[in-house]
Amino acid sequence: MSSFEEAGTEETVTCLHMTFYHPCQGDKMMFRCLNFCKREQVRADEMPKFGRDSNVCRYNLMDTRVSRIQFSLQFYRKLNSSEFCFEIKNMSKKTKLIVDQTELGYLNKIDLPWKCIICFGDYQILAEIEEGESGDYFETHLHLAEVPILQERCLPSRQPIPENSISSSSFSSQGKNPMEIDENES
């Protein structure tokens, strides 16, 4: 047998991709302490924190409006499953954390969906989980967005759009009503 055949099977690693956006990043450089575009290993038993306190937080946001500890993540395996997940917990007493449409108050926590948007203040973070098998550690891979994430994802507007894709405001206000036309007519 060759050494290749005897080598252990390589485990894949769960990776949490996080894309950060803030409208004032160009001026205030609040993400200057984050290590972008390079994967970083985090031990599975560690709970990485995001916030402005560099003594406590692994990921620092340089902004006085951010809480000392804004939120934390916990990596875990689901009970009776081989699936790994992340739990996100709001650690800020002053600012609510919004994960997709779920609002988290202080010390509230939920499972992080495999793809979601995390918001607090003017911060927008797109989080995407790349599944892996290793239970010893996971990786984070941080990215910087040039445009707002909510705009980029083209999230549906709150106003319903009629099936025919014509809104009532499309008609002139001269009292004309829409006319039904047989699709075989020209």
Word description of this protein:
Helices cover 6% and strands 33% of the residues. The protein has a single domain, classed as Tumour Suppressor Smad4 (Sandwich). The strands form 2 sheets. The chain has a 7-stranded mixed beta sheet, with no helix packed on it. It starts with a helix and ends in a 34-residue tail after the last helix. With 186 residues, it is mainly beta. The chain is globular and about 45 Å long. It has 3 helices and 12 strands, in the order H-E-H-E-E-E-E-E-E-E-E-E-E-E-H. This is TRAF-interacting protein with FHA domain-containing protein A. Belongs to the TIFA family.
List keywords for this structure.
about 190 residues, mainly beta, Tumour Suppressor Smad4, seven-stranded mixed sheet, five-stranded mixed sheet
Q: Tell me the CATH topology.
A: Tumour Suppressor Smad4
**Main beta sheet, described?**
7 strands, mixed
Strand order, largest beta sheet: 2-12-1-11-10-7-8
Question: Roughly what percent helix?
Answer: under 10%
Q: Total number of helical segments? A: 3
Tell me the strand percentage band.
25-35%
**Inertia-based shape:** globular
Structural class: mainly beta
Number of strands: 12
Number of domains: 1
Q: Measured on Cα atoms, how large is the radius of gyration?
A: 23 Å
CATH architecture: Sandwich
What string, H for helix and E for strand, traces the elements in order? HEHEEEEEEEEEEEH
Amino- and carboxy-terminal Cα gap: 76 Å
CATH hierarchy class name:
Mainly Beta
Q: Roughly what is the average pLDDT, rounded to an integer?
A: 84
Uncertain runs are 154-162, 165-176
InterPro entries: FHA_dom (IPR000253), SMAD_FHA_dom_sf (IPR008984), TIFA (IPR033621)
Organism: Chionis minor
Family: Belongs to the TIFA family.
GO cellular component, one term: cytoplasm
